[in-house]
Amino acid sequence: MGFTIGDALLVAMPVIILVAVLWALAAALKPRNPGLSDAERYQRELAARSAAHQASQVQAATAARARTETSTWPGQAAYNGPILPNGQLNPQLALQLQGMVRSGQKIQAIKLLRKSTHSDLLTAKNYIDRL
Predict the structure, then answer these.
(1) Do 112 and 96 contact (CB within 8 A), yes or no?
(2) pTM recorded for the entire structure
């Protein structure tokens, strides 16, 4: 009597099935990592960077406003025109335009900028697009 392929399969198949069942049980009962997933970690990191960026923008705007207000002489009212004497846009107008752009009012922001500075449409649109 010889050893045939059918005899080998009769011995090997139950062993293969047993190994597969044991592997499935080990994978199912393996303790899961209760920590954050990569996606959650990325979202938290992105939120932290966004908050830090916003805080730095607010700080820069506050510093610019303080510089503008302190650059006037005592007893003189602050300059409220759209363009400052040094050729820059008034920080109050810039903040108002930024708020309008963030709230989805780009066209109204372009109109306000054109009305305030008497600039042409292309210049105003390019400025608003960069905000």
Answers:
(1) yes
(2) 0.40
- SS3 state of residue 83: strand
Is residue 13 domain-resident? no
Domain that holds residue 111: 91-131
What is the domain count for the chain? 1
**Helices and strands counted in the chain (H then E):** 5, 0
Position 40 in a domain: no
Tokens of 72: 């006037």
Please give the Cα distance from 110 to 16 (Å, whole number): 72
Using CB atoms within 10 Å of the CB of residue 100, give its burial: 0 to 12 exposed, 13 to 18 middle, 19+ buried. buried
- Is residue 33 scored above 90 in pLDDT? no
Residue 95 lies in a domain: yes
Q: Apex CA 71: angle with CA 110 and CA 64, to 5°?
A: 45
